[in-house]
């Protein structure tokens, strides 16, 4: 309980903070973007409620493309709409390409002995080096890998199909863990090499479990990131978080060591081989301008972390939309039957011949935008945006969800209509698809986008060739997502039927 003295002290502290904020606002010559009124300490967090996407859309309507908010202790802006987000993400001076030094990042950096994941590294010469080499490694994996990546994606898609078809067709089943296992299995073998199912199974389970614990812990935003001083009050929680993120580190370490010993120049068994090759000219120790060879190889962990939830959640949302819109599912299946029949295996080059299926995948990506505000960006210097001043050290949320809901472009963004992405000849409309910003844009755009698209296309086509999904009787379809770092569908039940 607060006694009267404490209450008065608290009141004085709040009023002082309010006065400082007002004085800064009144006397500042700067023209900051408009935004809602916040309160000390929390800023605008209390206003976001249980649906931040909806609140940000309301603020977009009210204040425009650039909205100033306070994210707990941080100055922040929310950037809305395709044109303004593109401007920010593609700025030549990269002033918006930083990442904030949130407590989560500090804890991760400490836990991994100074090594940082590409996803969270602030913009710097080191970031550029990591980004360029990681992107090159992914490209060389796709073009040079001894075991064709497409075969890997297809093999896992077929395994998943077989598994789902083993469920009695009358049973209401959840497909979440099967889809998760298929995705983590692809990622694992893509990064670390082909492995026998029985040998890699414990690793896969461990990665899935760690991700679940991590998400539970972090929820839809780590409280320490918002109010950094809480880390000193809740030390136990910080330690738990460290433990959670370190629990699969032994797998990464063991795989790096294995690859270091067995790597031969000119061979690409997996992404780690490609990274190994590209790390040959890097120093063994970290320096100011250069990452170490170990740092580059450790990026497999970043790819694992960034690729798993995003891909599996997207696939689950696609299945959810297919059961909610049986007419769309039938049209997808008819297209697959006409182009591939029941047994011809699908290849990535077939994608142009399956425009409706692709339009369905893109439309689900638009409707769900599973990482709605991207990963927070950060300003590196004072700058200007749409006539407003933006200070150095401002957290920048790219509201990708706003792009998916831009009425002026989509007309009826609230409706699920895959055909909106087809042109007059029934082909995929590239211009409209490029307006779907699920993978963000510019310098920090998702580095795994091509791999994600290939994997999802091959998996959904294989499933549609052989299975039909139906909403299980007595179970409703709910599109409202579960909010975490990545949005996911609420648990849902389906019947899986064999088509042939
Ligand atoms: C449907 C699947 C996926 C979606 C929706 C997705 C979405 C995103 C988004 C929105 C960002 C943040 C971009 C920004 O901050 O502006 C991102 C970053 C990133 N993604 Fe993905 N992603 C997916 C799959 C993957 C896969 C499969 C990989 C790895 C193989 C991957 C690796 C990364 C990495 C490393 C970054 C950080 C890039 C950087 O900061 O430079 N993602 N992704």
* Class based on secondary structure composition and strand pairing: alpha+beta
* pLDDT averaged residue by residue: 91
Helical percentage: 40-55%
**How far apart are the termini?**
68 Å
Hetero groups: protoporphyrin IX containing FE
Q: How many β-strand runs?
A: 10
Q: Could you tell me the strand content as a percent range? A: 5-15%
Count of helical segments?
22
Sheet with the most strands, sense and barrel status = 4 strands, mixed
CA-based gyration radius: 24 Å
What's the level 1 CATH class of the largest domain? Mainly Alpha
Architecture per CATH nomenclature, i.e. the level-2 architecture of the largest domain: Orthogonal Bundle
User: Can you tell me the number of structural domains?
Assistant: 2
**Lateral arrangement of strands in the main beta sheet:** 1-2-6-3
CATH superfamily of the largest domain: Cytochrome P450
Shape: globular
CATH fold group of the largest domain:
Cytochrome p450
Low-confidence stretches: none
SSE inventory with pairings:
Elements: H1 4-27, H2 45-48, H3 52-63, E1 66-71, E2 74-79, H4 82-89, H5 103-111, H6 125-144, H7 149-165, H8 176-192, H9 197-218, H10 223-226, H11 230-233, H12 235-246, H13 249-262, H14 271-278, H15 293-297, H16 299-324, H17 326-340, H18 355-368, E3 377-378, E4 383-385, E5 388-390, E6 395-398, H19 400-404, H20 407-410, H21 430-433, H22 449-466, E7 467-471, E8 481-482, E9 488-489, E10 494-498
Parallel strand pairs: 2-6
Antiparallel strand pairs: 1-2, 3-6, 4-5, 7-10, 8-9
Helix pairs in contact: 6-14, 7-8, 7-22, 8-9, 8-16, 16-17, 16-18, 16-22
């Amino acid at each position: 309980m607060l006694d009267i003295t404490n209450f008065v002290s608290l009141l004085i502290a709040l009023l002082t903070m309010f006065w400082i904020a007002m004085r800064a606002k009144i006397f500042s010559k700067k023209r900051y973007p408009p935004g809602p009124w916040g309160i000390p300490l929390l800023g605008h967090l209390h206003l976001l409620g249980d649906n931040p996407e909806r609140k940000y859309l309301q603020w977009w309507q009210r204040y425009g493309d650039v909205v100033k908010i306070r994210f707990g202790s941080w100055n922040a802006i929310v950037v809305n709409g395709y044109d303004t987000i593109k401007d920010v993400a593609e700025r030549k001076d990269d002033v918006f390409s930083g990442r904030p030094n949130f407590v989560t990042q500090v804890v991760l950096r400490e836990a991994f002995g100074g090594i940082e994941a590409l996803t969270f590294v602030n913009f710097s010469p080191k970031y550029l080096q990591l980004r360029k080499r990681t992107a090159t490694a992914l490209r060389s994996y796709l073009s040079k890998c001894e075991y064709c990546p497409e075969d890997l994606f297809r093999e896992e898609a077929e395994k998943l199909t077989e598994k789902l078809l083993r469920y009695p067709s009358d049973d209401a089943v959840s497909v979440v863990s099967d889809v998760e296992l298929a995705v983590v299995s692809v990622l694992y073998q893509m990064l670390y090499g082909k492995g026998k199912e029985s040998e890699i199974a414990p690793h896969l389970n461990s990665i899935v479990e760690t991700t679940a614990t991590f998400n539970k812990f972090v929820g839809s935003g780590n409280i320490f990131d918002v109010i950094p001083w809480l880390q000193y009050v809740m030390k136990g929680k910080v330690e738990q978080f460290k433990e959670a993120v370190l629990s699969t580190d032994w797998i990464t370490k063991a795989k790096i060591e294995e690859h270091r010993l067995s790597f031969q120049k000119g061979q690409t068994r997996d992404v780690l081989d490609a990274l190994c090759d590209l790390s040959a000219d890097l120093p063994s120790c970290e320096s100011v301008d250069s990452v170490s060879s170990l740092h580059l190889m450790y990026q497999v962990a970043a790819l694992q972390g960034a690729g798993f939830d995003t891909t599996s959640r997207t696939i689950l949302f696609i299945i959810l939309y297919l059961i909610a819109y049986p007419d769309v599912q039938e049209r997808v299946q008819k297209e697959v039957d006409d182009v591939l029949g029941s047994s011809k295996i699908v290849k990535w080059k077939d994608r142009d011949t399956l425009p409706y299926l692709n339009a369905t995948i893109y439309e689900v990506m638009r409707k769900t935008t599973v990482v709605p505000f991207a990963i927070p960006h950060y300003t590196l210097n004072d700058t200007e945006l749409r006539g407003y001043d933006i200070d150095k050290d401002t957290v920048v949320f790219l509201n990708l969800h706003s792009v998916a809901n831009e009425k002026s472009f989509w007309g009826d963004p609230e409706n699920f209509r895959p055909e909106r992405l087809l042109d007059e000849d029934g082909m995929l409309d590239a211009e409209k698809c490029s307006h779907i910003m699920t993978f963000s844009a510019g310098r920090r755009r998702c580095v795994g986008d091509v791999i994600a698209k290939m994997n999802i296309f091959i998996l959904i086509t294989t499933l549609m060739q052989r299975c039909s999904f139906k909403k299980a009787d007595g179970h409703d379809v709910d599109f409202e997502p579960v909010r975490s770092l990545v949005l996911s569908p609420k648990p849902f039940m389906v019947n899986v039927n064999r088509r042939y």
